[in-house]
Amino acid sequence: MAIPIIYNIRSVKARYVSSFVAILAIAGVVSVFVAVLAMANGFRRTLMISGSPQNAIILRGGATSEIESSISLEQTKIIGDTAGIQRDKDGKALISPEVVGIQCFKLRSSGTDANVQIRGVSDNALKIRSQVKISRGRFFTPGLAELVVGSNAIKSYDGMDLNGKIKFGGEEWTIVGIMEAGGSSFDSEVWCDHNILRQTYKGNENSFQSVTVQLETPETFPAFKDAISLDPRLTVSVEQEIAYYEKRSEMVFTLIKVLGFLVAFVMGIGAIFGALNTMYSAISARSTEIATLRAIGFSERSILFSFILESLFLALLGGALGCIIIIPAHGQMASTINWQTFSHLNFSFAISTEILLSGMIFAFVMGFLGGLLPAWRASRMPVAVALRGL
Amino acid sequence: MNEIKENQTKSLIQVRNLSKTYKRGNEKIEVLKNLNLDINQGEFVSFMGPSGSGKTTLLNLLGGLDVPTSGSVRIGDAEITSLSGKQLTSWRARHVGFIFQLYNLIPVLTAFQNVELPLLLTKLSKQDRKKHVEAALSIVGLGNRMHHYPRQLSGGQEQRVAIARAIVSDPSFLLCDEPTGDLDRSSANEILDLLSRLIQEFSKTILMVTHDPIAAERSKKVLHLEKGVLIEAQNKD
Fold first, then answer.
1. How many structural domains compose chain B?
2. Do the beta carbons of residue A336 and residue A252 sit within 8 Å?
3. Has residue B47 been placed in a domain?
4. What is the Cα–Cα distance from A238 to A244, expressed in whole angstroms?
5. Calpha distance B163→B89 (Å, rounded)
6. Which terminus of chain B is more exposed, N or C, with fewer CB under 10 A?
């Protein structure tokens, strides 16, 4: 039987000052690590929930985002006639040809400029995107310079108030409604009539940048895609909306993760040295105890295992503390530039069980690496010498 | 692994031409020189001598805590000098009980948990371990101090817990390194009484290193070491 774990737990308690320093170091790293993962997860989640599996988005062939895409009015009509698109009770195809633009507004928090995505949509937009609801006010009236502002955008930008007026593109716009989009990227957008927006940006009046359609069912997507792709009049690309937004999240998601891992890695090295130092001093102070255990008959392996376990116990406490410290950040808002649209995107930290588990695993890795060498040294201690307290 | 069998005709411990040399830089320090020794089952033997005479080194070699430079140590039927480190560890668990000058109790464990440690290396059930620990602590007179931590005990009580730990697994012999060296006379006498009782009632074999002539008086045989050589054997029979 191994050395009882109670020995290690009580030893950690007995040396509470140095144990606490190691626990704190691990907790710091774990909280940063979890925060970064939660940030990346929140960013991705915000974009992922923007898309629906029942919707398809059509861009110009070769375009990777709406900004660089262009779809003619004629192509829009051909798309609208394609089989597989959901129709409303009047038999009208649920399609929304859209125009996007970027407009600079001042952030309420810092007073600095930030880009906001302005989306010109058709009056079908709310039917197609069922997650978007008008929470206050009303939807814009087609043909008027009216805006519906996302719930995050209205909180973030100076001058954006319900029934207030803002100027851009040479127009004065009235904010007539606030939309709740379930935490998706639309919460960071401003919507208006696509025809008005196109005129504002002096775009080609027969051109849009994307067309979003609602399909009869998500399963009809392959047939719809084939029909669009095989039509010689269309030089467009079709993606399921959910896949489109997933791809758009990839770049920033990876960037946050890589930078976050880099920071956590560097901090992790520090925490490993913290654990190493704590364990080396613990072992140095307990050399007579270790030698006594060896004299009694506990094997080198038992000692090795026991001290690795002690280090893992420190890691468990540090990891748990780190997770507890960062859990209140769940749901807290953050914002970043979405490099696909060059506009500001609000998202919330999303801490999941998997992320907390990853944080704990990271803590255990630090504890294991920090404890391995001291534990090895403890197990190889010459018994007769250590018994003399040398 | 060879088992130790009680054999009155043959010594329990046979030491032949035992030498131990340490190296310090280029210098060789000969701590024990061709030492020969026989100790029978149930004997109480004291080793005396000035500091650096090799008493503790001899005890370490007999307890399998260190390996000799040359010579043989046979305990029962086991030639311990030929055992590997791993075999020696396992052999110590079954055959040797150690008692140290500074008790060497684990401060974060209670008296009960300290005494239980050697039993964790056996196949005894938790219930059986409890019975053995309670028996050992009651032999040393600390049945009512089982759940005290070492810091809550006096020096003499701590040493008695250490003795309980040494005898709980019923080892073949006990090695005591200055067991009364850190105690006042009264506590020292209690410990020596206890060791004598272990010989009389439980036929334990005890080897004790001491500087204290009064402690040595309690043993059946006193061996004097000087500069690594046994110079005198005083047998009280």
1. 1
2. yes
3. yes
4. 9
5. 20
6. C
- Give the CA dihedral A372, A374, A379, A383, nearest 10 degrees: 180
The number of C-alpha atoms within 13 Å of A356 and in the hemisphere containing its C-beta is 16
SS3 assignment for A66-101? HHHCCEEHHHHHHHHCCCCECECCCCCECEEEEEEE
State the count of interchain CB pairs (< 8 A) between A and B: 73
In a domain, B156, yes or no: yes
How close is the nearest chain B Cα to the Cα of A50, in Å?
57
Minimum distance, in Å, between the CA of residue A46 and any CA atom of chain B: 51
3-state SS assignment for residue A129: coil
Angle between helices B126-139 and B155-167 (to 10 degrees): 130
DSSP structure string for A193-230: EHHHHHHHTT--TTEESEEEEEBSSGGGHHHHHHHHHH
> In the structure encoding, which two tokens stand for residue B109, read together?
């464990």
Do the Cβ atoms of A294 and B90 come within 8 Å? no
Inter-chain residue contact A10 with B63, CB threshold 8 Å: no
Do the chains contact at B121 and A296, CB–CB below 8 Å? yes
Q: Is A300 on the interface with B (CB under 8 A)?
A: yes
Q: Could you tell me if A377 and A60 are in contact, meaning their C-beta atoms sit under 8 angstroms apart?
A: no
Q: B117, B151, B163, B174: best mutation site toward chain A, by most A Cβ within 10 Å?
A: B117
Residue B227 maps to which CATH number? 3.40.50.300
Q: A271 vs A266, A275, A314, B37, CA distance in Å? A: 9, 6, 11, 54
Confidence of residue A341 (pLDDT cuts 50, 70, 90): low
Closest-CA distance, A289 to chain B, in angstroms, reads 6
- Classify residue B68: in a domain, yes or no: no
Q: Residue A385: what residue type? A: V
Q: Does A384 touch chain B (CB under 8 A)?
A: yes
The rounded Cα A165 to chain-centroid distance in angstroms is 33
Q: pLDDT 10s digit of each residue in chain B, 237 long?
A: 344 444 445 689 999 999 999 888 888 889 999 999 999 999 999 999 998 899 999 999 999 999 999 999 999 889 999 999 999 999 999 999 999 999 999 999 999 999 999 999 999 999 999 999 999 999 999 999 999 999 999 999 999 999 999 999 999 899 999 999 989 999 999 999 999 999 988 889 999 999 999 999 989 899 999 988 988 665 655
Interface of B with A (CB under 8 A): 56-57, 60, 63, 65-66, 85-86, 89-90, 92-94, 96, 98, 100, 102, 104, 106-109, 113, 117-118, 120-121, 165
- pLDDT tens-digit map of A202-244: 767 788 999 999 999 999 999 999 999 989 898 899 999 989 8
B92 vs A384: CB contact, 8 Å cut-off? no
**Host domain of residue B205:** 42-63+94-235
Residues of B in contact with A380 (CB under 8 A): none
